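Onboarding guide, step 5: your first structure request.
Type a short instruction followed by the sequence, for example:

Predict the 3D structure of this protein.
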Amino acid sequence: MELSIQQVASASGISSRTLRHYDQIGLLPAGRGRNGYRTYGREDLVRLQRILLLRQTGMGLPQIAGVLAGQTDDVVALREHLESLRAQKVQLDRQMASVVRTISALEKTEKIMADEMFDGFDHTQYREEVEQRWGQQAYADSDSWWRGLGESGQQEFLAESEAIAAAWAQARAAGLAADSQEVAVIAARHARWIEQGWGGTAPSPEALKGLAEMYVADERFAAAYGGVEAASYVRDGLVAYAATQ
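The system replies with structure tokens like these:
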């Protein structure tokens, strides 16, 4: 079985550009047909499936490469992924049940307890990663700030995040240049949102550039803006804005 890059992109739902990037960095080396075009066989598709599963756990590409290098038995690795997916399904089922209870309570104008509304949700899921990267105090400060917002403040912060993401998407769809004045207004709004999340400390131009690059490098952040290509537009806009500060 040999598939073209277009066929794999269509079947997997990821872009040809991403597949070429995976090939270039050695994460998913592609074969070459007689015409010199990339081709993918059965083993390549299994490896891609494992890559996509690991991406869902929040791993970066270097970490994924390390895992794949250390786990050469595809069946064993996929069984581990399957157990992880089953655990995620349990959590999703709990979240769905919470939403159903909330809808029912709203429709019947009944009271509902907060612990019932948020059963299955866990804002501390990234605690270990944060502490490993920036230390325990960084997580403690972030957690204290988040809890201090209260429910209404948390909702406002998340709503602003969604509004900013929508503004970036609209600017990109309109074909606005990343260094245009219109986009600079969005970037400034984005910087103010970051400042709020940092407890009132405005990000320096260097820090803003670093965060912008992370939006592209870490696919969890890229997903919030519609994927790597869309996140690249956000990065370019923030970098251009940072250069003027």
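Each response can be followed by summary notes, for example: The mean pLDDT is 79.
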